[in-house]
Amino acid sequence: MGHTIEYMIMQRKKNMFGGIEYKHEEIDKRYRAWGAATSYIRGKLNIQKTNARG
User: What's the Cα-to-Cα distance from 30 to each of 34, 45, 52, rounded to whole Å?
Assistant: First the structure.
């Protein structure tokens, strides 16, 4: 995206539930997509670990 880390940090804000959001719409969209992907991958890894113990 071409932004500095400092700029990204300055764009953070906490919502009323205590979660992180970004003031810049494009950054917020990508942050939510990253969170969804990591959550999905974490879930898949936990299922594989559970099946391996089987």
Answer: 6, 22, 33
